[in-house]
Design a protein that fits this description.
Length: 78
Amino acid sequence: MLKLQVLTFYPNPATDLLTISDTSEISVIEIYDISGKNVLSQDLNVKKTDLNISTLKPGMYILKTNSISCLTAFLDVE
């Protein structure tokens, strides 16, 4: 039997809170600005979290997670 790992994050664009969930445990969430500078990093061991991004300035960011799904995606902060 094949079981797919699914990582989701919403809303996108976001303003204050970003919800991130996965079917497997997420150990690290990192957000980088477009120049590659790490602007937010959290060590976790959860399947779902609400990440406070209210300190981020409006713009495009790169979201990276360390889980079985290993997502790297663009995040738009308004």
